[in-house]
Amino acid sequence: MDCAKCSRDLFSPKKTVKCVKCESSYHPSCTRLKSVENFRKLRKEARERWECDRCKGLEEVSSEDEESLDGVKEVASKSESTRSSAAERAICDVNRKLDKLSSVAGDMRELKESVGFMSTQFDTFMEEMSKLKTTVDELHKENNDLKSVVRELQQKVDYLEQDSRNNNVELHGIPETNGESCVDIVKQVSNFLKVECGSITNAFRVGIKKDRPRKIQAVLKSPDDRENLVRSAKADKSLTARLLYKEWPNDRVFVNENLTAFRAELFRRAKAKAKDVGMKFVWLKNFVVHVRRAEGDRVRTIRSFDDIDRM
């Protein structure tokens, strides 16, 4: 609604005075009241009976004045409309920006919540990882302890097994024949080597038949008999199967200690490692592997695969 005097917008009913006769509305400052404060000083009855200057006969308006006033009103209306449109555009622009800011604020809240959630998840993950690491460390220690126990038990079992073979020897390179006597063959070998073995407790072939003849395992009377026979066979490298029986081939015959599977593999690996690192001597004494790089060097005892790695 516009003021009947100046044609400008009446912003607030509380700041508007209305004529009871013509029902036109005015800014208090556009009437004889001069100001809003004077309007507010009027009693309620006076406000309800208030008449504008024109209805009171205090204002004479000519036709020219009317036309001039109408022109002023039109210009004021257009100006007010322009200002109103600009204000509306500015308000819309501000509202759009506020909407964008509100959207950004919402996104920031969601991002903050997501970061907080991820932080909590990460803390939980790190806590679980710490527990797993502790468990792995404990299992690793327990595994090492068990390995040590197993290694110790294996050594004890190997010692007991090797001790049970203390009187045994193995003969390699002896051809197999039907109806053969392994005891007689062992006696022939000892006679050739000029070693007195005493009574031979037992002798037999060991292993599965293949293209090559199986070894003969003999149980002698004592460890000394075993040691004498093995030492003599290694010293005399001329022993062949043909020297025992002329019908047999001229293949070398070997007499060795009867080792456990573990010690046999240990001896094999020690010889291979010695060849790689340039060690000249690898031998067995009392079923124990020994190595030496050269004449006069320190003798090293090999009791485990770790000892071989350190050669």
Automatic annotation (TrEMBL):
Domain Zinc finger PHD-type: 2-56
Residues annotated as transmembrane: none
InterPro entries the UniProt entry points to: FP_C (IPR057251), Zinc_finger_PHD-type_CS (IPR019786), Znf_FYVE_PHD (IPR011011), Znf_PHD (IPR001965), Znf_RING/FYVE/PHD (IPR013083)
Pfam family, one: Baculo_FP_2nd
GO molecular function, one term: zinc ion binding
Record-linked Gene3D superfamilies: 6.10.250.1080, Zinc/RING finger domain, C3HC4 (zinc finger)
UniProt entry tagged with the keyword Lipoprotein: no
Sorted UniProt keywords: Metal-binding, Zinc, Zinc-finger
Name assigned to this protein: Zinc finger PHD-type domain-containing protein
Organism taxonomic ancestry: Eukaryota, Metazoa, Ecdysozoa, Arthropoda, Hexapoda
